[in-house]
Write a structure and sequence with these properties.
Largest sheet: none
Number of strands: 0
Radius of gyration: 20 Å
Order of helices and strands: HHHHHHHHHH
Number of domains: 1
Number of helices: 10
Helix content: 55-70%
Oligomer: single chain
Length: 252
């Protein structure tokens, strides 16, 4: 049985992810390219932002939802991104710092964090994010930073998976994709992973073909993951550093 769609994203991005980093897209002269950059930004960072607002700042869910929308839209509407200095850390660390600065400034000024703000609202699964919080706050900057990164990594893999599914849905690789979903994505809860021999019988394939098809699928998923990672990093240097941390090897 095909696994449920990831809670972070339910469709491929709909445009080629190859070639450009996030900041290149967001700074592009072409409005369409900037919009594509904003889509990548929202897909990879909305859930880390929302979770951080709930855990560190203990905002009520409706306020955290609206501020997430407002914050992500504001990054693309003002000059905030121009202040990013890669020598001072990763882009996600910069983003979290900007978020904390915005909330802290509003609280020091005695302002109620405004809701709505006229921002264009994105279709985001806040209910799913809320279910995964399981209540309570997290203390300590190191723990908060680790949680922010974990949410970003999960969003990255979910987006890459949908991108891979989109690429494999060409009529020629349906079996490759089905094998990957059955074996690599894991069986239903409590069930054992099938063996290659069992997959061969199920799909009426030679065992060697199962091996070859899974090798293709893993290679193409890795390609989709690297393309998604590059699209979500601020620079080529950051992309290569993140790839080493995530995959334990240098990106091609």
């Amino acid at each position: 049985m095909q696994p449920d769609a990831p809670p972070y994203v339910t469709s491929p991005v709909g445009f080629p992810l190859t070639g450009q980093t996030l900041l290149q897209r967001l700074a592009a002269a072409d409005a369409g390219e900037r919009a594509r950059g904003h889509e990548v930004l929202a897909r990879l960072y909305w859930r880390p932002v929302y979770t951080h607002l709930r855990l560190k700042w203990r905002l009520a869910p409706p306020d955290a939802e609206d501020l997430t929308q407002e914050f992500l839209a504001g990054l693309c509407a003002d000059d905030t991104l121009r202040t990013f200095d890669p020598a001072r850390g990763r882009f996600r660390t910069f983003l979290r710092g900007c978020l904390d600065h915005q909330v802290a400034n509003a609280r020091r000024a005695g302002q109620r964090l405004k809701r709505g703000g006229g921002a264009t609202h994105l279709s985001l699964d806040f209910a799913g994010a809320e279910r995964d919080l399981a209540g309570g706050a997290v203390d300590g900057e190191a723990v908060l930073e680790a949680r922010f990164r974990a949410e970003w990594v999960a969003a990255l893999f979910a987006t890459a998976l949908e991108e891979f599914r989109h690429r494999a849905a060409d009529g020629r690789h349906a079996v490759h994709l089905a094998l990957f979903e059955r074996y690599d994505l894991g069986p239903a809860s409590g069930a054992e992973r099938p063996t290659y021999a069992e997959l061969a019988r199920e799909f009426a394939l030679p065992a060697t073909q199962v091996t070859n098809f899974l090798a293709w699928a893993r290679r193409e998923f890795r390609r989709a993951l690297l393309d998604t990672l590059r699209a979500g990093c601020a620079s080529e240097e950051e992309f290569r550093a993140e790839a080493r941390e995530l995959l334990g090897t240098d990106a091609p």
